[in-house]
Amino acid sequence: MEKEIDEKAQGQSLVLENKPENTKKLYIESYGCAMNFSDSEIVASILTNEGYNTTQILEEADLVLVNTCSIRDKAEQTVRKRLEKYNAVKRDINPKMKVGVLGCMAERLKEQFLEQEKIVDMVVGPDAYKDLPNLLAEIEDGRDAINVILSKEETYGDISPVRLNSNGVSAFVSITRGCDNMCTFCVVPFTRGRERSREPQSIMMEIQQLWDTGYKEITLLGQNVDSYVWYGGGLKKDFDKATEMQQATAVKFEQLLEMVAVGFPKMRIRFSTSNPQDMHEEVLHIIAKYPNICKHIHLPVQSGSNRILKEMNRLHTREEYMRLIDNIKSIIPNVCITQDMIAGFPTETEQDHQDTLSLMDYVKYSFGYMYSYSERPGTLAGRKLEDDVAEETKARRLQEIVDAQRTHSAFRTQEFLGQTVEVLVEKTSKKSENDLSGRNSQSITVVFPKEHYKIGDFVNVKITNCTSGTLIGEAVEYSEMN
Asked: Where does the record place the MTTase N-terminal domain (predicted)?
């Protein structure tokens, strides 16, 4: 399962600096995972060259696009409500407006959107964004437009994304697309296709562009970054069939991570998301070696029960996961580990649930993303397993997981009391104009008085107080990263 931006599928309308020669207006919203937000930046870049400027005013848009998520039913229902809103505006205010659906829902519900419900003019899958100019021409000629063909090669490595709604400090850099891990609950392999990696030089060039324009932090992004491998192109599953020379000279994730760390020593580096079965010890040593690689690993586990892990087709056991956790903490002592967890997967018993809680007690994650199971049509679990856990039982188990995480989060933030941490300032605090907010290397939010510091500064902050999710402190001095 890919990690979501806020895991509540809350949309974000995105805007960039406009070109004065462009006359058409694009309104684009993104929902769900970080990859969707990154893809929206690619879409905006393509459409900028087609004469579109972005707008935050829905009613004035010539083209409205929603970049969608299919990970959970709630995300899909949220998008449907937005489509109702778009069509109401189109009917009552702006009849020339065209509406399109991008992303995972587009791939999964293409016929339903265009033919049955007739609520959109265009449906574009995650690998078809370069075809947008042709699809827009189809719409102008009065025809519905659709392209949801999954690609075996497309990585968008040749497109320089525009940075939408950016703070000018942090940016996503996609390094892989697709997923080969056929978890039974997840639609990603069906909506985004097989794993393929992006050419390393194009990644380094994009990071260089970000550095040159003042960005201080990048997140290397993919459904499963640890499986990154570049051997000249092609699907990851075909790596074993590559020539001996290709295999010998291949760039794997730990090598890419080190290339970025060495090439940009003053830039902070994050990555997401990891899969336990694909995380190798070499990656851990690279993280420990370079101070500009953040000491945070998002390591979804989904369940603490071996039986449920097998039903999910998670290719690791509880014991293997715990050994990996021990290894991570041994090699990176100051690491922050975070989780994804599903409550109420089909056939889950009370003992299975207790196994999840005991695993959480063992790890004591810093924070996590926790949900009730949501059956996704087309997945193996959706086809083969009855959604047999009562909704009230799911809700109760989820609440117990959330309560446990809240306790563990408080434990982890309290560990920072009295410490001095390096913070990259990202924004003014939501609660006070006199405070700044940023994250430390462990990806925990830190708030401190503004004084003379500004967004984009690296600041050493001594932690004096905390909540279960936030560190509070006083600035000591600028960091050496400045």
From this structure: 24-141
Known binding residues: 33, 69, 104, 179, 183, 186
Confidence of residue 143 (pLDDT cuts 50, 70, 90): confident
Q: What is the pLDDT of residues 38-62, one digit of tens each?
A: 999 999 999 999 999 989 899 999 9
Residue found by looking up tokens 């979804």 in the block: 300
Q: Write down how long the chain is.
A: 482
CATH number of 420-478: 2.40.50.140
Its CATH architecture, for the domain 170-414, is Alpha-Beta Horseshoe (3.80)
**CATH class entry, domain 12-147:** alpha beta
3-state secondary structure at position 337 = strand
Q: Domain limits of the chain?
A: 12-147, 170-414, 420-478
- Lookup: tokens for 23: 């006359």
Name the residue with tokens 């945070």. Answer: 296
Nearest to 38 by CA among 81, 4, 72, 62: 4
408-445, pLDDT tens digit by residue? 999 999 999 999 999 999 999 999 999 999 999 999 99
What tokens appear for 319 in the block? 């014991």
Binding residues for [4Fe-4S] cluster: 33, 69, 104, 179, 183, 186
Q: For residues 39 and 164, what is the distance between their CA atoms, to the nearest angstrom?
A: 11
